[in-house]
C-alpha cells in the first residue's frame, strides 16, 4: 500500500492547478483581443456589411427615391428589366473593352519601367518618385486633368498635334464616339502604369542574384534570361497583379465619370458609371440590381485571385 508524502500532495496540487490557470489566462487573452478588435468589427459591419445587405435587398424591390412610401417586393423584376435593356449588352461590352484596353498597356509599360528601375543609375530615387507619383493622386482628379488635356478648343493634346503638323484642325476627342473610349483609356493607362511598376519592381528585386549569375555563366543572353529565368520566377506575382488590377479597373468609374460621364452616345458607358446614372435618376432598385451583377463578376475574379494566392502560399 502506497502512501502520499506532503511533497507528493503539494506537487499534485501544483500540477492540477496549472490547467485552470492556463484556461483563465486563455479566456482573459481572448476577451482582451476581442475588445481591441470590436471597434474595427463594428466599423466594418456598419459601413460595409450593412450597406451591402441593404443594397442586396433593394435589388429585389421597386425602390425609387421619388416615392419612398411604396417599396414593394418585386422579386427578379429589376434584373429582367435590366437584362432586357438594349444598353445592357453594349455596357458590358464597353466594360470588357475598358478592362482589356487599359490592362495590357499598363502591364507592358509597367514591366518595362520596372526593368529600367531595377538597374542602378544616377538619380534613380528621384525618377522612382516621379514614376510612382500618379498612384498618390485621386482617380477623379486624373479624369478632370485629362478632360482638360483632351479639350477640343484649348487642350494641350490638340495643341501638340497641330504644332507638330499631325493634325490640321482640333480633334474633338471627347465628343466623337469613336475617339472617346481611346481618350479615357489613355488616361487610365497613365494612371495605372504605376501599380504594375511598383508590383513588378518589388518582384524583380526578390529574384536571387545567384540564379541570374548562373544563367550568365551558362551563356544565356539578356532576353533569354528574362523569358526563361526571371519571368518564370516571378510568374505568380505577375498573375496576382493582373487579377487584382482586373478587379480594380472593372470597378473603377472615376476617370470615365470625370471625363465623359459615360458619353457620348453611351460609347464610354461601363457598368459602374451606368449604376451611378441610375442612382442620379433616383432608381435605386435598378441601380442595386446592376450593382448585384457587378458584385457577382468581382466575386468570380476575387475567387481566382484568392485561389492563385493560396496556391502560391503552398509552393
UniProtKB/TrEMBL annotation:
Cellular compartment(s): Cell membrane
Alphabetical list of Gene3D superfamilies matching this protein: MetI-like
Cell membrane keyword on record: yes
Chain ranges of the ABC transmembrane type-1 domain: 92-305
Membrane-spanning residues: 30-52, 96-117, 129-150, 179-204, 225-250, 284-308
GO-annotated biological processes: transmembrane transport
UniProt keywords, alphabetically: Cell membrane, Membrane, Transmembrane, Transmembrane helix, Transport
One Gene Ontology term, aspect cellular component: plasma membrane
Taxonomic superkingdom: Bacteria
Record keyword Cell membrane present: yes
Membrane topology classification: Multi-pass membrane protein
Family: Belongs to the binding-protein-dependent transport system permease family.
Protein name: Sugar ABC transporter permease
Amino acid at each position: 500500500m502506497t502512501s502520499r508524502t506532503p511533497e507528493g500532495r503539494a506537487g499534485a496540487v501544483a500540477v492540477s492547478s496549472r490547467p485552470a490557470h492556463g484556461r483563465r489566462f486563455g479566456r482573459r487573452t481572448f476577451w482582451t483581443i476581442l475588445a481591441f478588435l470590436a471597434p474595427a468589427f463594428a466599423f466594418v459591419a456598419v459601413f460595409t456589411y450593412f450597406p451591402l445587405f441593404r443594397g442586396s435587398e433593394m435589388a429585389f424591390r421597386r425602390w425609387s427615391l421619388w416615392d419612398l412610401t411604396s417599396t414593394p417586393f418585386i422579386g427578379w423584376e429589376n434584373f429582367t428589366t435590366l437584362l432586357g435593356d438594349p444598353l445592357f449588352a453594349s455596357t458590358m461590352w464597353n466594360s470588357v473593352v475598358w478592362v482589356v484596353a487599359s490592362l495590357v498597356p499598363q502591364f507592358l509599360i509597367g514591366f518595362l519601367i520596372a526593368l529600367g528601375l531595377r538597374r542602378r543609375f544616377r538619380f534613380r530615387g528621384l525618377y522612382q518618385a516621379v514614376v510612382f507619383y500618379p498612384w498618390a493622386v485621386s482617380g477623379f482628379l486624373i479624369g478632370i486633368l485629362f478632360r482638360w488635356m483632351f479639350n477640343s478648343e484649348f487642350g494641350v493634346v490638340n495643341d501638340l498635334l497641330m504644332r507638330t503638323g499631325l493634325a490640321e484642325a482640333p480633334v474633338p476627342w471627347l465628343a466623337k464616339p469613336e475617339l472617346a473610349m481611346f481618350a479615357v483609356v489613355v488616361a487610365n493607362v497613365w494612371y495605372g502604369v504605376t501599380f504594375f511598376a511598383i508590383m513588378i519592381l518589388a518582384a524583380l528585386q526578390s529574384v536571387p542574384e545567384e540564379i541570374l549569375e548562373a544563367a550568365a555563366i551558362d551563356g544565356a543572353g539578356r532576353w533569354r534570361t528574362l523569358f526563361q529565368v526571371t519571368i518564370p520566377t516571378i510568374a505568380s506575382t505577375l498573375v496576382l497583379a493582373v487579377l487584382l488590377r482586373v478587379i480594380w479597373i472593372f470597378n473603377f468609374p472615376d476617370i470615365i465619370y470625370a471625363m465623359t460621364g459615360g458619353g457620348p452616345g453611351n460609347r464610354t458607358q461601363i457598368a459602374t458609371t451606368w449604376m451611378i446614372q441610375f442612382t442620379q435618376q433616383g432608381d435605386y432598385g435598378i441601380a442595386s440590381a446592376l450593382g448585384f451583377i457587378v458584385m457577382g463578376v468581382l466575386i468570380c475574379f476575387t475567387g481566382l485571385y484568392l485561389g492563385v494566392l493560396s496556391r502560391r502560399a503552398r509552393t
